[in-house]
Structures are given as structure tokens and as C-alpha cells.
UniProtKB/TrEMBL annotation:
A Pfam family it matches: Methyltransf_7
Name assigned to this protein: S-adenosylmethionine-dependent methyltransferase
Organism encoding this protein: Solanum pinnatisectum (tansyleaf nightshade)
Transmembrane regions listed in the UniProt entry: none
Gene Ontology terms, MF aspect: metal ion binding; methyltransferase activity
Source species, domain of life: Eukaryota
Upper classification of the organism: Eukaryota, Viridiplantae, Streptophyta, Embryophyta, Tracheophyta
Length: 313
């Protein structure tokens, strides 16, 4: 995520992500009450992929008699200084720590956590940067990588979470009946078209586009169920698709949406294409605002997320 608190930072451009996080508050509260022993004195929570915006979520208020120790985890390059400046504004006081590192490996001592909330491809994907609309082989590669990564993630959490502890996952998703070729999320396609325009104009080598794929997969309930059952460390207490209608999409503000995406994806593009090309990519995509707005108005009802509550066996 783009660090700092400037105009184009993730801190200032994560309103839609906050909307999706807020949508899960009631479900997380219910999962905690129904599945965990809340009579203990000290409760340990980790927010994985916390980033630096207002998307982190805490339930400290609902159990005033318990002391909470919250660990905020993200990559070592995350701007934890900005994150901690934004905390403690209206919440019950709690203890907080930063845990830098990838959550695809161990981060904590064995059996130490009670709850853990959460928020590629070697083959050539010619002239595309995602599996939306690509060949079936590309989609299969994404599916395989998702199963591998989520399996590693769950195995690491299984070592850290106490028996009977809870992990809550909130992921962008698609209904099972929608085929991969019609997931309906065309923002990557708009970015992709800007790249292809630059290739056609001789500004960019086509091989750079062919070798770049956005590492984002939209799982279905069946995808997640298969991973959990294969992992066999957790039982599924609740799994459900929800449809949080974002105010950003309601207003069909394409320029704001692109700026939000810039805050999220910019560093990923910079690492592959460099600063100059990346700036040009997003500048050109902003010029497609009218087309993007039309797409947003048609598809605003379709955006969904997957809520999963898992209990450590």
C-alpha cells in the first residue's frame, strides 16, 4: 500500500475497503460470542494484512471487562507509524503491537492467539494481467496458487491459535454459479487496456505485459471449503457470501475508484514496470472515467465478499 498520509496515500484512499470491513462487524461479533470463551481475562487478537488505512477492525467495546492485546501484522515495509497514529481515537483502551512479516509463515508462538481476523503465475498470459477473460489454463494456475497459499496460511495459523480459538477471514469473492470468464470485475481490464495502448505506441515492450499478472483471486464458497477440509486443522463455523453495496460504487465516481486502486496497486506495478510507466498507466486509466462509471453503475449490486469463521480443532 502507498505509505504516508498524503493525497494519494492508502490512508486517504481506502474508503471503499472500510465499507467492506464495516459490513462484517455484526458477523464477527456473533462469531466471537457463539464460538469463544469470553470469560478469560486477557484476549489476544491479530489483524493480518492491517495496512495503514481505516480498514482495521476491533471488537474491544463489546467486552468491557476483558483486557485486549492486539497485534497488527503486515509486510516489513508497511507504514506502522501512520497506522498507530490513527488508533485509539474512539475505542476502549487496549494494548497494541506491530508484527512485521508475511502471514504466509509463522509469526507468533504456538497456541498464543484467540482470534485472527484477516483482510504467481509462471506461464505467459499474453496481453493480459489477470485471469478475467483469459484462457482456462491461466485461471487454473490462479486456482492452484490460491489453494497452495491459503493452505500454507491456515497451517501457520493452526500452530499459533489456541485450541478452540477462532480465525475470521473476509475476502473478495464470487458466487459459485458465475464462471471465471464472467467474474465481472473489469477494473483490471481497464488497467490492462492502458498497458496495451502503450505497447501499441511503442512505449512498452509487450513481453513485460505478458509476464505480469495481478495476484488477486476471487474464491467461491466451494474454493474455501475445499482448502479448509484439506488442511483439516479447522472446522467451518460459518461461511457466507455478503453483498456490501459500497457508497463509492453507488456514486459511480470512477476517478476516486482509480485513485483507491492506485493506493493499493501502485507499488506492485512499480516493482515490475518502474515509476515512469506506472504513473502513465494510472493517468491513462483515469481518462477512461466515463467508460468505467458506466460499468460501475451496471455492476454495483454484484460486488460480494466471503465471510468465513473457522475454529481451531
Amino acid at each position: 500500500m502507498k505509505s504516508g498520509d498524503g493525497v494519494y496515500s492508502y490512508t486517504k484512499n481506502s474508503s471503499s475497503q472500510r465499507k467492506f470491513a464495516d459490513n462484517a462487524k455484526v458477523m464477527i461479533r456473533e462469531a466471537i460470542i457463539e464460538n469463544l470463551d469470553v470469560q478469560i481475562k486477557t484476549f489476544l487478537i491479530v489483524d493480518m494484512g492491517c495496512s495503514i488505512g481505516q480498514t482495521h477492525f476491533l471488537q474491544c467495546k463489546i467486552f468491557p471487562e476483558i483486557e485486549f492485546h492486539v497485534f497488527f501484522n503486515d509486510h516489513v515495509t508497511n507504514d506502522f507509524n501512520i497506522l498507530f497514529k490513527s488508533l485509539f481515537s474512539d475505542q476502549k483502551p487496549y494494548f497494541a503491537s506491530a508484527i512485521p512479516g508475511s502471514f504466509y509463515g509463522r509469526l507468533f508462538p504456538s497456541c498464543s492467539l484467540h482470534i485472527a481476523p484477516k483482510e504467481l503465475i509462471d506461464m505467459k498470459n499474453k496481453r493480459r494481467i489477470h485471469y478475467d477473460g483469459a484462457f482456462i489454463e491461466v485461471w487454473n494456475a490462479y486456482v492452484t496458487q490460491f489453494h497452495k497459499d491459503m493452505g500454507v496460511f491456515l497451517s501457520a495459523r493452526a500452530d499459533e491459535i489456541v485450541p478452540g480459538g477462532l480465525i475470521v477471514l473476509i475476502l473478495p469473492a464470487i458466487p459459485s454459479e458465475i464462471p471465471y470468464s464472467k467474474i465481472g470485475y473489469k477494473m483490471f481490464t481497464f488497467l490492462e487496456s492502458s498497458l496495451i495502448d502503450m505497447v501499441n505506441e511503442g512505449m512498452l515492450d509487450e513481453s513485460l505485459v505478458d509476464s505480469f499478472n495481478v495476484p488477486v483471486y476471487f474464491p467461491s464458497i466451494e474454493d474455501m471449503t475445499k482448502v479448509v477440509e484439506k488442511n483439516d486443522f479447522f472446522s467451518i463455523e460459518k461461511i457466507e457470501l455478503t453483498y456490501p453495496k459500497s457508497k463509492l460504487v453507488d456514486e459511480a465516481d470512477a476517478k476516486t475508484l482509480i485513485i483507491n486502486l492506485t493506493a493499493v496497486l501502485q507499488q506492485l506495478f512499480i516493482n515490475h514496470f518502474g515509476n515512469k510507466i506506472t504513473e502513465e498507466i494510472f493517468t491513462r486509466t483515469i481518462l477512461k472515467s466515463y467508460e468505467i462509471s458506466a460499468w460501475m453503475k451496471i455492476n454495483c449490486e454484484k460486488a460480494c465478499q466471503l465471510f468465513v469463521a473457522l475454529k481451531r480443532k
